[in-house]
Amino acid sequence: MSVVYDGIHSITFIREDDSIVRNTWGDFHLVPAARPHIEPPPAQVKMLSLPRSNKILDLTNALTRDVIYDAREGDWEFYIDHDKWKDWTKSFDAYADYFDGSVFYLFLDDEPNYIYHGRVYVADYKPDASYSKIRIHYNLDPIVEEYEWKPYSYDPGADIKFFILSIGSDTYILEKKGEVVI
Residue 124's domain spans which residues? Predict the structure, then answer.
């Protein structure tokens, strides 16, 4: 299957243990089946039914006065561009090696100022000679961090294509895509 795709709506991953940075399109040649998004975190709702009564007590924020949220969990489904792989049958090895259940920082290229953190792994792989599909599962922290990208260029007069992203004590120089307000 020949794919015409320019890489918009891709996802960039930074593996926490070894800081290897990969992009779904630029490195893995994955075309999203739908525009990638991250599910909102569900609230931990605690309801108590009172015996011999038609009343229900809502204990959701009774002790902490704040609502507590569970992890953001969901899947992304991608088509694999076989034309970009010399041997498309080897593509699964690359995905399984990188998305092995490790902890990642990640951001959607559509929302680059929001950095998510959590586990990511290959949930399903459907190989085919025409095109293959892969489903990647995520389980991310409920709280998302907002980061500011700082421009980075060797040449002060050049168009800025790279930006510095600092997460904790680590600093990454990444190519920036899309429209971003800095």
Answer: 11-38+69-147
